[in-house]
């Protein structure tokens, strides 16, 4: 039971949670945009921008799972979710930005914990 509360396990579980949900979300967004351009019409962005955002998300999915790149990937995903929050507020639908706010909090926590883990690993490697 004590292993359940190990911080590295929480960070690893959060990495997989972010990876799976962002991969599914990016693929779903590509599907919606390709079929009906519903997102570009609703938010006023070009389809190319929406596809670019999805590609960046899919690259960050891989980055989140690699401990060395996890803090950077979390930072990029946080920028994307802050943009999503601003987009929802801009169209007059702030209540639909709730999930993005929660993701922002989780990503900031994950980025800080991943960075602390990377610093600890570097320090232990320099000592030995």
Question: Can you describe this structure?
Answer:
There is one protein chain. The protein has helices at about 5-35, 40-45, 45-65, 70-90, 100-125. The protein has about 130 residues and is mainly α. It has one domain. The longest helix has 30 residues, at about 5-35. The chain is elongated and about 55 Å long.
Question: What structural keywords apply?
Answer:
5 helices; mainly alpha; 128 residues
Briefly, what is this?
The chain has five helices and no strands. The chain is mainly alpha-helical.
SSE arrangement:
Blueprint: H1 7-36, H2 38-43, H3 47-65, H4 70-90, H5 98-127
Helical fraction: over 70%
Quick one: overall form?
Answer: elongated
User: What is the strand tally?
Assistant: 0
Strand content: under 5%
The major beta sheet can be summarized as:
none
């Amino acid at each position: 039971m004590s292993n359940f509360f190990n911080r590295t396990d929480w960070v690893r579980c959060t990495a997989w949670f972010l990876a799976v949900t962002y991969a599914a979300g990016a693929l779903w967004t590509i599907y919606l945009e390709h079929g009906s351009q519903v997102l570009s019409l609703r938010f006023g962005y070009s389809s190319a921008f929406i596809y670019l955002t999805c590609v960046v998300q899919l690259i960050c999915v891989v980055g989140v799972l690699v401990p060395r790149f996890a803090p950077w990937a979390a930072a990029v995903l946080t920028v994307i979710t802050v943009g999503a929050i601003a987009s929802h507020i801009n169209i007059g639908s702030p209540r639909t930005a709730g999930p993005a706010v929660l993701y922002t909090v989780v990503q900031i926590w994950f980025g800080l914990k991943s960075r602390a883990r990377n610093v600890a690993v570097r320090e232990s490697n320099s000592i030995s």
